[in-house]
């Protein structure tokens, strides 16, 4: 008998933690006799997999039962597959679990007749008991007999944590208690020989890891607020798991802990372990509440190796009434002061949510500019999702003016303070923020706007209107097109920019364009000031030439009217040698001269002439 756990990820490189953890747990706690007649495995596909391809792939496992892990991003795909699977795998038993179905089983089961049961809450022990019930019901090799036997047994011997149909309607098997000791859950990434699971490419897949479960906070829009119990894995276990990732050379490990920095002694110990044992490659991602970082934590962070850690911090809004209704009161001044003290070697993502209560377009602009002033590496602009079972859903239903999508992702369409038209404008601003801020491709241009106290929100709002009026939002654009659009805007008649701003920005856009990568050709807007002889002399003076051809292929030379970091005019021109990272089998160019900018992660550049 085969039980298959199915995970559908947003992208191919996202590892599904849930199906791996549950499979590891069930295989660890089934008895040898039970394992002899019940095989439990997992499989993952991108949510974008065509339905027919997904059905074909699942059917190859010849499963007797398929359990789907359902989230907001894969609900439609999972339920579509569940509806069609019995047509090609007759008699298959289908269960669904996960945050997207845990709180709506009573409404889901009548609408989706192919789903035999819903699992609510943590899945490890519920799936374990489902498998044990399947073992007891396996009186025949015929799959159709197994399904009938299982459904009859489920009514007579309800599995705690499940919802299922009976003659009287949808029935609950009772609420499942959470796992109190996380040490009981096996590590899900280790193969039988002790190495990293073969299906996890350490260089290209994002690994998710949990060192705690639950959240003590009461954010009204979040499902994590429903489970307020917080449980921690033992530190020694966490250290061993971290070392496993480090030894395997994993590129990115994201902690799924809802708020990582709850217990100071514990989280400082984990950060100290990373500092002491870092391999120079692995990045650890944490979601933190920055306002709770102590002086001791901030001192420790100064010791973190460059690029070893990144933080995701929820700003959401800076308006007291909004934050109070959202269930996350915070002092913006205290929060800003702490974020500014986070060392620059730690990559920082700051989150905002549009559509929260009592925040209109103008107020949101102030939240955006507050966030931009903190100079994060990324500004993540999200939109409120009104999820079933949350306090936000209760609030929105009582307030006239709230509209949101009836199906996943349940995104807000309008609020009493933010009409649909304003949310559409913010959607455009979000796209431009991703392209021109979060990409890092225009960091010198953006840094100037911050330095000159230009409202970044006003800039992106006017840029969005510029795009909208010229029909530039339709379709995909190459990076060279994006640069041309921005150059056209910055050198035009944008109301948020002065004549001096336009002059400086035109030079900074040239600098940002050439520093991104070695250009095969230059677009029409780019005014080239190249001197081949000066390039040759700069290469000779500042690099150790192993191969002239390779050295020239990995470098470029340009002159600018201003210094890209001080924005001051440079008489005679600011001359720069750009040295690009190795690619296509080329070795890294060795420098004789220390690079002028060591913080630019895209390219090393050397000021050939200082002002």
Automatic annotation (TrEMBL):
SMART domains: Elp3 (SM00729)
CDD domains, sorted: Radical_SAM
Pfam families, A to Z: B12-binding, DUF4080, Radical_SAM
Keyword Metal-binding tagged: yes
SUPFAM superfamilies linked to this entry: Cobalamin (vitamin B12)-binding domain, Radical SAM enzymes
Key words, A-Z: Iron, Iron-sulfur, Metal-binding, S-adenosyl-L-methionine
Cofactor: [4Fe-4S] cluster
Record-level Gene Ontology MF annotations: catalytic activity; cobalamin binding; iron-sulfur cluster binding; metal ion binding
GO cellular component: cytosol
Residues of the B12-binding domain: 1-141
Keyword Amino-acid biosynthesis carried by entry: no
Superkingdom of the organism of origin: Bacteria
Domain Radical SAM core: 201-425
Chain segments annotated as transmembrane: none
Listed name of the protein: Radical SAM domain protein
């Amino acid at each position: 008998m085969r039980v298959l756990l199915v995970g559908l990820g947003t992208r191919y490189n996202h590892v599904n933690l849930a199906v791996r953890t549950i499979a590891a747990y069930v295989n660890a706690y089934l008895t040898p006799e039970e394992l002899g007649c019940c095989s439990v495995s997992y499989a993952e596909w991108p949510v974008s997999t065509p339905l027919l391809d997904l059905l074909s792939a699942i059917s190859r496992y010849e499963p007797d039962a398929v359990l789907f892990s359902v989230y907001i991003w894969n609900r439609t795909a999972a339920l579509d597959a569940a509806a069609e699977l019995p047509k090609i795998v007759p008699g298959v038993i289908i269960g669904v679990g996960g945050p997207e179905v845990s709180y709506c089983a009573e409404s889901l089961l009548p609408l989706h007749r192919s789903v035999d049961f819903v699992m609510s809450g943590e899945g490890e022990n519920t799936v374990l008991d489902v498998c044990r019930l399947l073992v007891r019901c396996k009186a025949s090799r015929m799959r159709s007999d197994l399904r009938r036997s299982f459904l009859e047994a489920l009514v007579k011997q309800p599995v705690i944590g499940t919802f299922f149909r009976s003659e009287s309607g949808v029935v609950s098997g009772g609420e499942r208690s959470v796992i109190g000791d996380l040490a009981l859950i096996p590590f899900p990434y280790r193969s039988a020989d002790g190495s990293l699971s073969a299906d996890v490419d350490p260089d290209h897949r994002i690994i998710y890891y949990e060192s705690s479960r639950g959240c003590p906070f009461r954010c009204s829009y979040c499902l994590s607020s429903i489970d307020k119990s917080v449980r921690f894995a033992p530190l020694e276990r966490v250290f061993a798991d971290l070392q496993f990732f480090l030894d395997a050379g994993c590129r990115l490990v994201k902690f799924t802990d809802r708020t990582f920095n709850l217990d100071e002694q514990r989280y400082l110990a984990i950060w100290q372990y990373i500092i002491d044992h870092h391999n120079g490659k692995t990045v650890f991602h944490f979601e933190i509440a920055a306002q709770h970082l102590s002086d001791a934590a901030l001192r420790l962070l100064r010791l973190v190796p460059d690029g070893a850690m990144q933080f995701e911090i929820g700003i959401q809004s800076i308006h007291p009434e909004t934050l109070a209704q959202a269930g996350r009161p915070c002092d913006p001044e205290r929060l800003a002061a702490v974020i500014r003290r986070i060392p620059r070697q730690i990559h920082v993502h700051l989150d905002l949510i549009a559509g929260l209560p009592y925040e209109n377009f103008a107020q949101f602009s102030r939240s955006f500019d507050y966030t931009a002033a903190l100079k994060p590496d990324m500004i993540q602009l999200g939109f409120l999702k009104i999820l079933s079972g949350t306090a936000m859903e209760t609030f929105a239903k009582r307030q006239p003016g709230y509209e949101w999508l009836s199906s996943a992702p349940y995104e807000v369409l309008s609020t009493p303070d933010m009409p649909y038209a304003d949310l559409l404008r913010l959607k455009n601003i979000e796209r431009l923020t991703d392209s021109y801020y979060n990409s890092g491709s225009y960091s010198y241009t953006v840094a100037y706007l911050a330095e000159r106290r230009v409202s970044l929100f006003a800039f992106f709002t006017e840029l969005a209107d510029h795009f909208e009026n010229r029909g530039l939002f339709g379709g995909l654009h190459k990076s060279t097109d994006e640069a041309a659009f921005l150059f056209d805007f910055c050198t035009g008649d944008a109301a948020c920019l002065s004549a001096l701003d336009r002059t400086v920005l035109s030079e900074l856009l040239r600098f940002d364009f050439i520093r991104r990568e070695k250009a095969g050709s230059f677009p029409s807007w780019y005014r080239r000031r190249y001197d081949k002889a000066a390039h040759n002399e700069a290469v000779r003076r500042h690099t150790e030439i192993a191969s002239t051809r390779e050295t020239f292929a990995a470098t470029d030379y340009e002159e600018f009217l201003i210094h890209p970091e001080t924005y001051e005019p440079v008489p005679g021109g600011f001359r720069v040698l750009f040295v690009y990272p190795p690619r296509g089998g080329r070795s890294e160019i060795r420098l004789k001269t220390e690079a002028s900018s060591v913080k630019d992660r895209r390219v090393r550049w050397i000021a050939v002439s200082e002002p």
